[in-house]
Write a structure and sequence with these properties.
336 residues; 4-stranded mixed sheet; homodimer; 6-stranded mixed sheet; alpha+beta; 12 strands; 11 helices; Phosphoribosyl-aminoimidazole Synthetase, Chain A, domain 2; 24% strand; 60s Ribosomal Protein L30, Chain: A; 2 domains
Chain lengths: 336, 336
């Protein structure tokens, strides 16, 4: 059995040194980076049996997903990527090799997104858990977009398509068949290997978006948080939600309304945002240049809370994350 | 049962907003602080049954200790304190009130040390775990002290006294009696509520110390890390180790050599450092002004590794952390 100290050494040996900010990476009491402008930090935790099952995800994919979900918070601020720190709680049933696979999955995404994994901690634990700290930066605070800047009359937009991660989870958990294999693979990929919209997030921030969140818990929940932080209400026209290919079929096979997947299942890691009406064209162009499509799905109005509207304009509810998560699915709390 | 989202809200309500760096604290996708000079980040994890037992520590003390141990890494760099982020893995047997007590313990230390707890995450888990990210800063990299700057001929010093945390752990785990109650209380305090040497660490850095680590795993292990990072050997004269009051009595009652407690048990969170000979007087004066005594316990020499010497100058071994930790005591790995 490799000691945790040796494992940390093996992890460090696999981590690329990148970024002009990093002065001291892992191996000292702390990592040291050149600060510049403003620093943006987010912390997320992922626990076996709550956020993932080892039976349905590879360690490589898990490492990718933990970092991707964490970086998605930086995307939602419009921040530049900086550093990441990993804490691994390692149960005795996992081998060191599996921890290294997890790190390899994270490191591959880190390399692709300009992130330096700069340190962390490894400890024994009963279940596998991963806590990720990501640090981003911007030259000035004004370059960043919080959740609190929406104004009544703003258009509410979302990037990409929704429901794919939830449909992928259903495919894994319920072993649904009958789907085109390529479509099924794409949905599994949406669930297992989400892509943080970092370039798009920065482009949207520059294009005049003034409130933004990532779609981690579904547009219903994440929209509610923008509404709350901005002190207004957000109306979402459910019929306008862009669906990933295959979501309708998976929903039909599972006996679920596809809108529940699109608005409630979450983990799509797209970006949900508010933009003033006159910025819409610029926002669309900026997103397109960054490789993302924009759908306009609602508006900010006076009031409070989230209002989900059907095609007739009547309010309806969607089922949230916990409904799709299976028996052990404690709903994870929103990270800060 | 409070939801994790509600619990996060309750936690946020208890956190003071402090520090001129903080632009956005918890509640958005990420926290935003004004970067300035260099940023110093360390991550540590604490797991029930590995690092602590709920039967022998209060949640208030646990919150204190997790933050103190984390801040100790900033002290060892000579950094100014900045922000902290907490991840809590909450097992179902814990009530929200207990999580809030843990946060209260951390927040009290944060307030005293100028730290802003700026965010975090709460999740369900099987065992209680806490992952802490601390961020410090300095105007210039040159103000910080790594582990790699020791030079042959340097004097090796340590602040305060050693062995108290290990003796306190023995008192808790083995229920030893016969000790003066005040001395016993002080040892328990050393174990349960360690004090990060933040002011002393900055003073030592200014006074010319050129390699430093905190005593988390014992001077034998922590000295070995300085030796390794600096590419030399470190000799420690065990007879020179400053012992906390009562360590000898506890060791005798437990049938252990007190030097094992002083050099091997760790968790004293004092500072171990290397200083050039001509800086010794300045280092002593700086430490004293910061409220710490300095003991000179060895020297850096050509070679590799740690050399523990008895009074006759002969090499000897000490028992490490794992020996004192009891049956569930997996040795925690060194964090980065």
């Amino acid at each position: 059995m490799t000691s945790e100290f040796e494992l940390l050494e093996q992890i460090r040996a696999r981590l690329g040194r990148r970024g002009e900010r990093v002065l001291r990476a892992a191996g000292d009491d702390a990592a040291v980076v050149r600060g510049d402008g403003v620093e943006v930090t987010s912390v997320d935790a992922f626990v076996e049996g709550v956020h993932f099952r080892l039976g349905t995800t590879s360690l490589l994919d898990l490492g990718h997903k933990c970092l991707a979900a964490s970086l998605s918070d930086l995307a939602a601020m419009g921040a530049q990527t900086g550093e990441a720190f990993f804490v691994l709680g390692m149960p005795s049933h996992l081998e060191s090799q599996e921890a290294l696979e997890l790190i390899d999955g994270a490191e591959a995404l880190a390399a692709r997104t300009g992130v330096a994994i700069c340190g962390g901690d490894v400890t024994a634990s009963r279940e596998l858990f991963i806590a990720v700290t990501v640090v981003g930066h911007a030259s000035r605070e004004a370059e960043l977009v919080g959740r609190d800047g929406a104004r009544p009359g703003d258009a509410i937009g979302v990037t990409g398509a929704l429901g794919g991660a939830g449909a992928g989870l259903l495919l894994l958990e319920r072993k649904l068949g009958g789907l085109d294999p390529d479509v099924g693979s794409a949905l599994l990929e949406r669930h297992l290997r989400p892509e943080p919209r970092l370039t798009t997030g920065r482009a949207l921030a520059r294009a005049g978006v003034r409130a933004m969140a990532d779609v981690s818990d579904g547009v219903a929940s994440d929209g509610e948080r923008i509404a709350e932080a901005s002190g207004l209400a957000i109306e979402i026209r459910l019929a306008e939600l862009p669906l990933d290919e295959g979501v309708a079929e998976v929903a039909a096979a599972a006996g679920i309304d596809p809108l529940d997947l699109a608005a409630g299942a979450g983990e799509d890691y797209e970006l949900l945002f508010a933009a003033p009406g006159d910025a819409r064209a610029a926002v669309e162009a900026a997103a397109e240049a960054a490789g993302s499509a924009v759908s306009w799905i609602g508006r900010a109005v006076e009031g409070a809370g989230i209002r989900l509207l059907d095609e007739a304009g009547n309010p309806r509810q969607v089922r949230g994350w916990d409904h799709f998560r299976g028996p052990s699915g404690d709903r994870p709390a929103e990270p800060a």
